Amino acid sequence: MNPRQQCIACLERNPPSTFEAASWIATEHDGQVEFQIIRDQLTALERSVSAALPLLPAAELAQPLLRQLATLGFQQDDAAQPKPQAALIHKILERRRGQPLGLALIALEIARRLEIPLEGVNFPGHFLLRVPGADHTLDPCGGRRLYPKDCRELLLRQFGADMQLKAEHMKTATPAAMLQRLSRNLRYLHQLNDDLLAALKDATRVMELGQANTSDYLARASLYQHLDCPQAERFDLEHALLLTDDPVQKLRLTQRLQSLPSGRAIH
């Protein structure tokens, strides 16, 4: 199987192997990735974290785990010009810098190995973690506790006053949802760094990992436009048109479709 198929196969296991699936995504972009090195790095990290954890019940160890990861140097990548290495799991392990989701995937895998209850929360703009049943979430970048007021402030800083905290923002993230979000992050980072073919891999993976939304189809259509693939662009624009409920967007998509060449191009 190729890396994409291996990634999807990891999600079909019971239970799903989310961290391994993320490693296969890294392999799809970097053929030099060695799984044994990733496993050895993670095992060494698990031992370091475990040795420093206090003697508390497992349900109380999630925050100490995250704090210990921060002590070991795992921090949010705040580079002014973000690069794909901030989201690729093998690079995060190597550099100890990454996006919140990448740091969370490492924390979740160590928690799983140490039998510490911990789950992902698909919060907009900043992935979060939570002990199941807790009244707060945890920031994967250091372990800070976030209560509803803190989550509202986080939304305000990132999206402005128009974005209100909703129950759906606090839903537990499934493995497929985490990998789909990871793929969206990589799509953005690769496009930002002018690697359109890599971004196209990520955009297509988004479609294969779960239900795609209007923005997903528009993002891939934009890539096809830059790569001069009008028929593939048309396919995605037509799907975006079917999904959107916005009348203004419907009009713009219709106009854009009408501007595309009608003949079949070979690429």
TrEMBL record:
Coiled coil regions in record: none
Domain Protein SirB1 N-terminal: 38-183
Source superkingdom: Bacteria
Family named by the database record: Belongs to the UPF0162 family.
Name of the protein in its database record: Protein SirB1 N-terminal domain-containing protein
Taxonomic source organism: Pseudomonas petrae
